[in-house]
Specification:
601 residues, mainly alpha, Four Helix Bundle (Hemerythrin (Met), subunit A), 3 domains, two-stranded antiparallel ribbon, Alpha-catulin, cadherin binding, actin filament binding, Alpha-catenin/vinculin-like_sf
């Protein structure tokens, strides 16, 4: 049973708020809440089925079974009472959700009482009225929906804890930004490090718990960016403090600050999605035309998939109306636009470029045959013609997708085989230490061209990404390289201006190491893209260096197995009580969001 959206029964009134939960459409964003509710759904279903079997069909049951049935209702009521008590405690500690939480707890308490009363219906009186199944079903649905609302409201508190941790990091960043002395910097940076550890734990647990593959991938890249740029922040800030007159050092450090704030904003978007409204400029002023949420960008593979889905609808309906014709033309035009990154690239071999253009021309030809106005042919002939044309066009699209895959992988292979990064960066460092300004500028220009080529390769990988995770990771790999390349050059210029500065040399080395990590990311993503294209499942990604492993701190609940309610046994019936006690435990975790402190290695 899917619990992505939990339907509700007659819930009565609901309290309003700035971001209230829709009682008719409760969407669950995390795996822990869904796994917590699965056994509850199972037990409620078992209870309803038993009541229907005994009270409606009058099947004979043992005296022991009857006693167990009578005890189930009181067990449910007691367990819900404890669960509600935890929810009300959370409401008392969080006034912003208090009205909604009290309302949900009240509904849960009423539902528990209703089930208890129904379970205590007389079963041994011959003329007792039979129980209407709809009454029990309505009470059960109300119980499930109210429990879900309580859990989602508690989850909102957990999200606010993460945002509060981000606010602390952002405040420390603003203090570091105006710091002008080493002593003060060391003190503030120590506080900043502790706040980053707390945020790493909280965001790591949330990343592991999110259901959306896209959001998990975005959290992963944002957390990795925070870790890498924290080291860059340390060295670039030290360089600026040592050389406050250097404009290059100032621009380099400010660029690192911008990247950290961008990562904070991305984490905020992921954790608040569907839970809380988030200010798009909470941590960063958006000046880029590209959306920060990279998951909504169109790629060549996405354009092929959209067009294929449209063709399938045409094949099923055997009709191409004016509206459908316009959408098909628009989808094909979008695909042609996406392939321009392949055909316009100076690094794409001529024969590959011609092959792509040939496939596009064949697609246009088949599309022309498909969307031409109806002639005088019979409906059967027209239907057969559409099906044949759709099949041919699908084959052309499949061939085009394979060709794009070949071109992208060849680009990656060539750029990684050349391995120009180490040579160029080593040359920049050597010239900078020697004070060779002309040499530094010459190698910087070569590195700039090489960096643009690397970004282009990332863009092609992004176009052929087949999964949400690859779509996000390849897109952010390109963005990271685009942001990191000019900062690396600024670090090189700073060292060239101060060739004897040990801090400036260390700063450039850290930037070069970070660039190498980005190249390694590109290599890894290329392998995963190739595996996905070949139908193989890529190996599970390893946790980033020193960031805490999501779900390894005792805070992420393991999915509990549904308990089979054997109504013939009193003790088995009371397992339902333990089950809802478990809900209370999970609710307490959501409400307080406690995590164990840990140190970054």
């Amino acid at each position: 049973m899917s619990l992505a959206r939990v339907p509700t029964g007659d819930l009565g009134g609901g309290s309003g708020s700035t971001f209230g939960l829709d009682a008719r459409n409760l969407e669950i964003k995390t795996k822990s809440i869904e796994h917590t509710l699965v056994p509850l759904v199972s037990q409620i279903t078992t209870l309803v089925n038993f009541k229907e079997s005994y009270l409606m069909n009058g099947k004979p049951k043992s005296e022991r079974a009857i006693r167990a049935a009578l005890k189930v209702g009181s067990a449910v009521e007691a367990a819900i009472e404890r669960f509600v008590a935890v929810g009300e405690t959370i409401a008392d500690e969080n006034p912003d959700i208090q009205p909604e939480m009290y309302d949900a707890c009240h509904e849960a308490r009423l539902a528990g009482t209703s089930i208890a009363n129904l379970s205590c219906c007389s079963t041994d009186i011959p003329d007792a009225p039979l129980l209407d199944k709809s009454v029990l079903v309505r009470a059960s649905r109300q119980l499930l929906s109210s429990v879900t609302r309580v859990l989602l409201l508690a989850d909102r508190v957990l999200v606010k804890h993460i945002l509060r941790a981000e606010d602390k990091v952002a405040y420390s960043l603003s203090r570091l930004e105006v710091c002008r002395s080493f002593t003060e910097f060391v003190k503030i940076f120590a506080e900043f490090g502790g706040e980053m550890v707390d945020l790493a734990h909280r965001s790591g647990d949330r990343q592991h718990d999110l259901k959306s593959e896209k959001r998990r991938a975005q959290m992963s890249v944002a957390r990795a960016s925070l870790e890498r740029h924290t080291m860059l922040l340390l060295t670039s800030s030290k360089t600026l403090l040592r050389h406050p007159e250097s404009e290059c050092a100032l621009q380099c450090r400010d660029g690192v600050f911008d990247q950290i704030r961008t990562a904070l904003q991305l984490i905020a978007i992921c954790v608040s999605d569907g839970v809380l409204p988030i200010d798009p400029t909470r941590f960063v002023q958006s000046t880029s035309e590209e959306p920060l949420d990279i998951g909504i960008q169109l790629t060549a593979n996405a354009a092929i998939r959209q067009l294929t889905e449209m063709l399938e609808m045409v094949r099923m309906t055997s009709r191409v109306g004016a509206g459908v014709r316009e959408r098909l033309i628009g989808a094909l035009d979008a695909l042609c636009e996406m392939t321009q990154d392949f055909t316009d690239s100076a690094y794409t071999p001529h024969h590959h470029r011609e092959q792509i253009l040939d496939f596009l021309e064949e697609c246009r030809f088949e599309m022309t045959n498909l969307i031409q106005p109806d002639d005088e042919s019979t409906d059967q002939l027209r239907s057969d013609g559409i099906e044949v044309t759709v099949e041919r066009l699908n084959r052309r699209l499949k061939d085009l997708g394979k060709q794009l895959q070949i071109v992208a992988m060849e680009h990656v292979s060539e750029v990684l085989r050349a391995n120009e990064d180490q040579v160029l960066l080593s040359s920049i460092k050597a010239c900078a230490v020697a004070g060779d300004i002309d040499g530094v500028e010459r190698y910087m220009e070569k590195f700039r061209e090489h960096a643009e080529h690397m970004q282009e390769v990332c863009r092609l990988l992004h176009h052929i990404s087949l999964t949400d995770a690859l779509h996000v990771n390849t897109g952010h790999c390109e963005r990271n390289m685009r942001a990191l390349a000019p900062l690396t050059l600024l670090a090189g210029r700073t060292l060239c201006q101060h060739p004897s500065s040990r801090i400036a040399r260390e700063n450039l080395e850290v930037f070069c190491d970070t660039w190498s990590q980005s190249v390694n990311d590109l290599s890894r993503l290329a392998k995963e893209s190739d595996s996905a294209a070949c139908g193989r499942v890529a190996a599970e990604k390893q946790a980033y260096m020193s960031l805490p492993r999501p779900g390894k701190h005792g805070t992420t609940s393991k999915p509990s197995k549904p308990i089979t309610l054997d109504i013939e046994s009193y003790y088995e019936a009371l397992k339902f009580l333990d089950l809802v006690f478990g809900l209370a435990t999970h609710l307490r975790y959501l409400g307080h969001g406690k995590v164990e402190s840990a140190k970054i290695a």
